[in-house]
Amino acid sequence: MRSKVARTTGLIIGGLAVLVGGVWIGQGAGFIKGSFMTGSRTWLAIGLLCVVGGVFLIFLTLRPGSDGGGPRSGR
């Protein structure tokens, strides 16, 4: 990521995706009651995908040299 704003945004979105995905996993698995999502394997799968996507976004944001490294990056 090139700017501090882009890095911060990536971390926030990735973190929120992990948190929301975790809740959906809990609801889909039946650990969190009180919703139409409770016990639904669909929401379990959606939650897993959301967590994986969030972790991937955080990884891309935090990896060394994530400024692009292209010809315009000044390297």
Written description of the protein model:
This protein has helices at 4-28, 41-62. It has 75 residues and is mainly α. Helix 1 (4-28) runs antiparallel to helix 2. The longest helix is centred in the N-terminal third of the chain and has 25 residues, at 4-28. The protein is elongated, with a radius of gyration of 16 Å.
Could you give a quick summary of the protein structure above?
Helices cover 63% and strands 0% of the residues.
Low-confidence runs of at least 5 consecutive residues: none
The main β sheet shows up as:
none
Query: In angstroms, what separates the terminal alpha carbons?
Result: 14 Å
Helical segment count: 2
User: Structural class of the helices, strands and pairings?
Assistant: mainly alpha
Tell me the number of strands: 0
How would you describe the shape?
A: elongated
Q: Roughly what percent helix? A: 55-70%
Q: Roughly what fraction of the amino acids lie in strands? A: under 5%
Q: What is the average of the pLDDT values? A: 86
**H-E order:** HH
Radius of gyration: 16 Å
